[in-house]
Design goal:
By secondary structure, the protein is an all-beta fold. Helices cover 0% and strands 45% of the residues. Strand 9 and strand 10 form a beta hairpin.
Length: 334
Amino acid sequence: MAQGELVTITVDDSSPLLRYTPNPIFATNVSPDPSKNWSPICSSQNGSSRCDDHSAHLTGLDGARVALSFYGVALEFHGNVTLGLKVQVTVDGTLVEPTSNVVVGGGVQVGGANSEQNLLTTVSGLAIGQHTVVFTVQAGADRSLLTFDKLRIIVGHAASFNRTIIDGTDEVNLIYGPPDQHFWSTWNNYEGAVVPPGVSNTSFRASDKKGATIYKKFTGSAYLYYGPCYTNTGSYTLLLDGTANTQPVEYNASVPYQQIIQGCLRGYAGGLSKSGNHEVSITNNQEQSWLTMNWLEIWDLELVQEQQAQTAGGGGGGGSGNGAGGSTRSGYFE
């Protein structure tokens, strides 16, 4: 059984890394109708400007999907369902019956609900590597509903793990561009902002100029990029280790409610060569649409080879526990 601390990454429903089909309704003046689309909501109360830990995507539309590509060995789906709605799971192109708890090709398991944690299902037993998981709604009775909260990536158990956190206001270790252009400004963080140790909880960097860039050259096996997401944060591209054979990946960071997601996961890649030099370039695609940077994490990570069909929390996913007795390290605090 694998030893060492369990490394995880939380991907909130508001993260632009998630791919929704159909695209959610993002107009703030349109009443959401979960029977026809994905309907993002913020349940933050008491006048809070932050929606971290209070957002969700609702839908009852048969065939609605949410997908994530990630590097790891397991993936937890957190949320709840009503009136017989089910969630069908496709793992790397292979369809798996929902909540079946059966082992399919390669030792992959799907199942293991835990109502106390709003854990609907866990995809586990994956070989260490890059995977794509698609969750598809199978509608139940009339007005059945899925409330999707977050995904939790189980990267694996670490033989060694060193995490470097770079504050977004650090203009020595982060290069803001274009050169000689005054595209960037510093803004105050929102009240109650929660950030990792070493990151300023008072300010972040932002630009609403098309062509504004953030660049970082690094050595490590993974990076994570966090910056606030709100209504006026829009389209941007990420380019990792750009060559003639690679293309930027476009994302949209806009959310349809007035509150903001302070700790919004805007970029992530894992499984990189530890000994090689890497570079990530982030570019704003729209004028008067904000590109933000709160902090960047660089990971130097070596994973223990997991036993095939081992779950994150045991036997098909009954909880997210610490696996084989090690501590737990989260890429984003929960």
